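Annotated sample (chain length 81).
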Amino acid sequence: MNAVVPPHPNPKAIPHLWNYKELRPLLLRAGELVTAEEAERRVLMLINPALRTSPHSSQRHQLTASQRSPRQPTPSMPDYN
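Output written by the structure step:
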């Protein structure tokens, strides 16, 4: 159980700031490369530099930035209840 819930914190992620001014051109380019017809959702995964072998922003969380065109319909989220 200590591997899942260790007795003391042992963080591997490092503090990191993703700047929207740097991300925005990448999001727009992703919208050009992959159209709404090709993929329902287009996202950039924001991966912590210290966790390059894992697609996580922190040890337990994933952070993504989504790109939608102005006239692109937004499907509703699934109801998990």
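Annotation: Residues 20-66 form one domain.
Annotation: The helical segments are 20-33.
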